[in-house]
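Minutes, project check-in
Item: structure for the 300-residue chain
Input as provided by the requester:
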Amino acid sequence: MRFKNILSLIALGAMWGGSYLFIRLSIDVFHPVLIADLRLLIAALLIGLYLLLDRSTRSYLKIQAGDRVRLLIVGFFNSALPFCLIAYAMQSLTVGLGSILNATAPIWGSLVAYWALRDPLSIWRVLGLLLGVMGVFILVGGISLLDTAPHGWEILAMLVATFSYGASASYIQKYCADLPPLKMTFGSMLLGGLLILPLAIYLAPNAHTWPTAYEPYWSVLGLGVISTALAYVLYFRLIEDVGPAKAISSTFLIPVFGMIFGYFLLEESIDSQMLLGASIVLMGTGLSIGLIKPDRWLKP
């Protein structure tokens, strides 16, 4: 892997890790659904502009009638629903914890792929799934998510969001393999944003309660521009340069940057339980998606 690709991987991890910071800075004044919808529509607008300026991708702006249902399903389950749930969860979760829980998405993806696509599970992938569950268990203190754990509903919302990400991956693989990635990203974000737009408008502040401080607006703009539009364009370029397996390794950096941003910018604490849980979740994720392959180490 070339040096510029390594820098791109680090930048992508920072962009996606920063999404939790942006949400945390705006969630106190904007409803989670409004934040999710603005994130989608801002990203769709910028990616659409990118497609328009590039002659080779300009045709992607046209969404054919036969593609709309598929893109709407992807837009809801891969963007609108998880974005809303994550924004809801970040009302009380720290940036570090939210970003660590995000790392469980590939684990859910492996389970759904096994059930829906008959994707085989090796002993190491099964071990990875078990480690991922153990890591989440450690993160929440080993007690009931809904009854006594602090912020139980928010943690559950994060896990449902990551499950939605994982399930969407199997749907995309099975039903959307013929769609160019950038076209699918633009179309799904646009349709997902339009789908929840009426609810976002209903939940938006009225004319007298819009915040007067600039920070929430800049945070939502950063969420849509940096952590969504630019991040996806960079992600698909990485896929072209180094392949999907290496490109997806950027997700391992999301918790790292999430904890760094939370610690230095929001003065959030990082304790030993969080570090242990994060390490186990990341190891389990690496095993479950095949990035960590012990078979290679065990060969004589």
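Outcome recorded: Confidence is low (pLDDT under 50) at residues 143-148.
No further action items on this chain.
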